[in-house]
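BUG: 3D viewer hangs when loading the predicted structure for this chain

Environment: internal workstation, default settings.
Expected: structure renders.
Actual: progress bar stalls at 90%.

Input used:
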Amino acid sequence: MDTSVLVAAERGGFRFEEMLRSLGDEPVAMAAITAAELLHGCHCVSDAGARARRSAFVEGLLEAIPVFPYGVPEARRHAELWADLARQGVLIGPHDMLVGATALARGYALSTLNRTEFARVRGLRLVPTERFET
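Structure tokens produced before the viewer hung:
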């Protein structure tokens, strides 16, 4: 899961549960950087009520969805991906490279609303998400 899907789900712009049902038995997880991005979003909210709601949402996700750490296999794929995209002159955001590298290292497809950037990642399978956007 990419952060874009999870943030859209929180904001009501994505039918998250419907997408999960469509995956059937396909396992779902997020990269550690995705967890960090979600937690960062909690800390950026100045309104206490909104911060509490967002924190509850994020903590629920972190309890329900496994988080893959960034270890040596992910670092190897990250380095390879980074060099490949730099060579082509089509770098994507540094956090997106970590998400993509984690998915590649684990053999997972990626669910994202940021299809344009992630389409540049050779070998990365993207979950079709368009039909779940509201």
